[in-house]
Specification:
Blueprint: E1 6-9, H1 11-19, H2 26-33, E2 39-40, H3 41-47, H4 52-64, E3 68-70, H5 102-117, H6 122-130, H7 134-151, H8 156-167
Antiparallel strand pairs: 1-2, 1-3
């Protein structure tokens, strides 16, 4: 994705900004809110307080989900060279430590689900909320990884970041 490409908000993106229909996370919403007129990816990266790679991921995800269009970018094309896009999450990188802060882990996973799946995340979020310990959450995470790998492979890098952040709470 070329950083000089212009990003345009779509009708779906306008609906999200105006009525919060899809309940996107703060990173994605911050991108949409800046699109009162088409701007370059470089402009968005300069105006954000979030890490560059996270905003690039958010822009790509918004394009894949139809909230924005990017000049010269086809949603199915490969991710930027700066950000690796794994095809699978390895067994070791999906393990949760026993000493994690459960409430923070649940918050991070629910936030990921809402960002990634929008209103379709209700059932998954309810399951995460019901987890009483790290081992139960770990089992649910394995199911979540399977769903993301099959249906939302573009979200794998974001899920890996969430897993790493969860493990850093221990």
């Amino acid at each position: 994705m070329d950083s000089s490409s212009k990003v345009h908000i779509t009708e779906k993106g306008v609906d999200e900004v105006a009525r919060r229909i899809y309940k996107l996370g703060i990173k994605k919403r911050s991108v949409l809110i800046q699109l009162t007129q088409p701007v370059t990816i470089n402009h968005l990266l300069q105006k954000t307080v979030f890490p560059k790679n996270e905003i690039v991921e958010a822009i790509q995800s918004l394009a894949e989900e139809g909230f924005v269009s990017i000049e010269g970018y086809v949603a199915s094309q490969a991710v930027s060279q700066d950000i690796p896009k794994p095809s699978k999450i390895t067994e070791n990188s999906s393990e949760l430590g026993n000493e994690i802060i459960l409430s923070e882990a649940k918050f991070l996973l629910i936030d990921f689900c809402v960002d990634s799946f929008g209103t379709q995340s209700e059932a998954i979020a309810a399951g995460i909320h019901a987890c009483k310990d790290a081992s139960h959450l770990g089992l649910l995470l394995k199911k979540l990884i399977s769903v993301v790998e099959k249906q939302y492979p573009g979200q794998l890098p974001a899920l890996q970041i969430v897993i790493r952040k969860i493990n850093e709470t221990s």
